[in-house]
Structure formats: structure tokens, C-alpha cells
Amino acid sequence: MQVTLNCTLLENPDHFVLEWFLTDRSGTRHRLASVEQQGSQLQGTVHDFRGRSPPYKLDSHGGLELLQAQVGDERDYVCVVRAGASGTTEATAKLRVFAIPETTEVIPNRGTLSVMEDFAQEIATCNSRNGNPVPRITWYRNGQLLDVPMEVNSEGYMTSRTVREASGLQSLTSTLYLRPSKADREASFHCAAHYSLPLGNQGRLDSSPFHLTLHYPTENVRFWVGSPSTTEGWVREGDSIQLLCQGDGSPSPEYTFFRLQDKQEKMLTINLEGNLTLVGVNRSQSGTYGCRVEDYDAADDVQLTKILELRVAYLDPLDLSTGEEFSVLLNSSRTTVNCSARGLPAPTLRWTKDSVPLGDGPTLSLSPVTFDSAGTYVCEASMSTVPFLSRVRSFKLLVQGSPELRAEEMEPKAEGGWTEGDEVRLTCSARGHPEPELTWSQLGGRPAEPVLGGQGWVSSSLTLKVTSALGREGVACEASNPHGRVSHVFHFGTVAPQTAQAGVAVMAVAVSVGLLLLVVAVFYCMRRKGRPGCCRRREKGSPPPGEPELSHSGSQRPEQKGLLVGGGGARGGSGGFGDEC
């Protein structure tokens, strides 16, 4: 940046000469430039550049210009004004150049620091380069300022070194020494460079944080069963489990896993991870296991060996005192079934039927046995201290006995009772074992089908029309199996005839027949149209038209009356149809 040093006169003499001097560190003045008034103009001359690049310049008012201010420009500049009879006067300007240093850099000690040493060890070096004036470096642990002296001691101190660069800027290097402790294993360290700004202001540049790698002995050891274990320490047979061992020393020591058998250690594995995996653990692996931390720097009073008891829970398949199917007779006084389980810890047994709890314990008692007792019974073994370890065993109870029959009575459609022609649907349901067969005294019964959710019931239905005969005899359904048979008769009582409806039907039939015969007669006459004597009554030797007919005697009988006269030819009384109308 450019800096201009101004020298302003408080009075206006007729003639004056203004000179600029640079005072070096020894106090010697060196004339840099001069300005002389010539009329209303100022004539300026630069006399000595003092090796500066770019050189000094004068502005139109006699001010001294320093292009691209540099650290080397930090001097005292003296302005001397000579005004003849008015006298000589001077003023001094102190120029200070501020430069913000580069990013603060920290170089931590990447080695392993032992907490067992009794002297301060090098922690890190902090660098702040190319600043002006020289910056100041401070150190922090977990964000808190470390108040360490500059004097060497066994607990902690820091050293500093300042270097002036070729550019004139200054660099500062600070090194921190501490006697670390175990508490520093998780600590975060960093340094900060503080620099000055114009008008008394301050700036700060922090380094990135870093952590230490420490060596400290084991003080505590933990040994436990990892997942999946219960809160009581049980593990399920067949699971893969982990035995975990952890010491608090650094770096991580070796871990030796062993099993105690007959008071003797049987070595299982040695590793740095502190992890022993048992795949598909079984009951024979129950016992005492141990872990030993191999840390030779640990204090004598530290317990480096830990043991634990591994308890493997198991549950064998259940045994029932009966097979998968168990048959008993209806109304048996007492029936018992036993369920036995073997496991560790001791399992709890529970009986259920259709998900309904029946009781706890190994023995199931049924008394008395009814058809409702039939179904599937489940024995379940579980352990409250070992979740998800359980077994079930079931059997089906079959109740042998004569069928039980249930009929659904149908009410008549009319309030007065049944009427001939009414349609009715009869239903019979039965249960028993073996499954009963349902039959009807009338044809048309549907095959028996299981009743949905009916606990062994089967059902058959019959649809028919009510008649007077059914009213007298009724309709019977029968259920039978090898143990017996049982029946039910549906009674209809008095069945009313269809009287009014019958008269109407007969009249309709008569009218229909009469109309049919009339149509036939008309059709017949139309066929004979044009024949002489068509549709006339005629007999052999009948008188001419218009003469009265004579009565017959003897064997002659009166001619048949009616719409048609039967006869095979032209003769009457033969009983057939003739050609005459």
C-alpha cells in the first residue's frame, strides 16, 4: 500500500524551503528530498533514494510518498522548514508498518509419550511466519490457556525463537514441553498466534487441534459376555456369542483367554482385540472362563486377570404321554395327559386350547369329557429369564360317542299354519366321532358339510314343498355312526288345502277347453265350405226341406243331439265321425 507523509505549514511565509530527513537507528539524519517555493508554485527534488525501490516521491503539496510500504520503512521521518527571517521549524513522523502473519502451523510430536517419565517431554512446535511486529504465541489444552513459563523445569515450559526474514518480516517459533499424564489421552491441544494491528487492535490465528499418543499402564480390566446375552447372564444354546475383555492401558496390550477345567487353565486364544467368539455354543461349553491382560508395566497391585461364569441355557424337545391323536369315550370321568420338559434354567409349562389358557404345570386333566372337549391341545415350555427360548408340543383329542343331533325348526310362513305348496328348508346338524352320517326320510337332502367354526359339527339341509301327506307323516333326519344313531322328526301339523285357488284353476281349465273345441269346429266347417248339405243334419230317407220330421218307432231311435254326430259314412248311429255337419 502507499503511504504519504504530509508536512503542513501553520503560517504562510513569503518564501520557504521544506526538507525531508530520514533518521537511522544511530540517530543520523539523511536528507531525502526538498521543496522550494517559487512564486505560487512548489518545486520539489528527491536527493537520496537510500536504495529504496520504488523510490521516494513528492506530491504537489510537498508530501513525501512511499509507494508499496515495506517493513524497512519503519523509521522516524523529519520535516524541516526554513523561512528566512521567520525562522526554522521541524516536526517528526514515526512510521510503523503492520503485517498479518501467515496461517499458524503446528507440528505435534508423532511419537509415543510415556506418562511414566519424570521429566517434561516435547509436545509440539508452533510456527507463525512473516508478520510485523513479531507475533506472540500461546498454547491451549481443551480450549484452556496453558500457563507455562519460559524457564526449563520437569513439569512443563516453552521456548521461543524469532527470525527476521529477508523481506524484513519476522517469524516466531515456539516449542511446548510437558510432563503428560493419563488424563491427557483424550485431550485436544492447539496453539495460537497473536498479532498487532493499527490503533492498538489485536488479531489471532489458531492452529488446527491435535492429540497425543500416550503410553500408560493398565489400571483396570473388564471382562463380560457380549450380545446376545440376557441380563442374568444366560446365553441360548446354538447362538454365537462373544467374550469381551478390555484393559485401560495404552497401547493395547495382548489378551490371553482361557477356560478353567479342574482348576487348570486351558488356553483358548491370544489376540490384541480382546475378543473371543464362540460359534454355535452348546451346553457342554458352560463353565468358568478367564481373561488376562499381558501388561508388564502395570503396578503390582493391579488385578490383570478376570474370570466369569458362562451359563448356556437349553431346552430339549417336549415329551407327551400320548401320541399326536388321543381318543377317549364320551362322558369319561377323568382323562389326564402329561407333558415333560428338560432344560436349564427350569422351564415353565403351560397348557392352551385354541389359544385359551387352561392352566400351568405338566399335567392336563379333563373331567368330564364332552364333545366340546375335542380339539387340539398345546403344551408350551418357556423360560422367563431367557427370552425367545421356548418349545411347543400338541395333540388332538378325539371324543368317541353316539352322535349328538341338533335340528333347526322352521316356522310356517302364514300365521294360521302351513298350506299345501309352501316351500320349506329343513336343517339338521350333528357331531360325534367317527363323524356321523346324516340321512333324510325324503329325497333331495344335500350332502353333509362342516359347520364353519362349529367344533366338529356337520350340517345337511333339505328343501321341499309342504303337502298334506307330509303333514300327517312329518320329515325325519337321522345321524348315525358306529356308536349309535339318533333322529329327529319335523312335524307340520294340519296342512290347509288350496280351496279357493283350486276353483279358480278348474274354471280356467274349462274355459280353455271350450275355446279349443270351438276353434276346431270352425276350422272343420271352413274345410267343408261349398259342399251341399254342409252343416245340415241328414238321415237316409229324410223328408225334403220344409216338411216336418216324423217320429221314429220300433228299432229306430232318435238322432243324437250335439255338436258332432259320430259315424263312419252317411249312415247315422254308427258311433263315428261322418262327413255331415
From TrEMBL:
Keyword line: Cell adhesion, Cell membrane, Disulfide bond, Glycoprotein, Immunoglobulin domain, Membrane, Phosphoprotein, Receptor, Repeat, Signal, Transmembrane, Transmembrane helix
Pfam family, one: C2-set_2
Source taxon at top rank: Eukaryota
Entry GO MF terms: laminin receptor activity
GO CC annotations, alphabetized: plasma membrane
Domain Ig-like: 1-96, 101-211, 228-305, 317-390, 403-487
Membrane topology summary: Single-pass type I membrane protein
Gly residues bias (residue ranges): 564-581
SMART domains per record: IG, IGc2
Transmembrane segments: 504-526
InterPro entries recorded: CD80_C2-set, Ig-like_dom, Ig-like_dom_sf, Ig-like_fold, Ig_sub, Ig_sub2, Surface_Rcpt/Adhesion_Mol
Localization of this protein: Cell membrane
Keyword Hydrolase: no
Function recorded in the entry: Transmembrane glycoprotein that functions as both a receptor and an adhesion molecule playing a crucial role in cell adhesion, motility, migration and invasion. Extracellular domain enables binding to extracellular matrix proteins, such as laminin, integrin and other ligands while its intracellular domain interacts with cytoskeletal proteins like hemoglobin, facilitating cell signal transduction. Serves as a receptor for laminin alpha-5/LAMA5 to promote cell adhesion.
Subunit structure comment from the entry: Homodimer. Interacts with ITGA4:ITGB1. Interacts with spectrins SPTA1 and SPTB1.
Name under which the protein is recorded: Basal cell adhesion molecule
Highest classification ranks of the organism: Eukaryota, Metazoa, Chordata, Craniata, Vertebrata
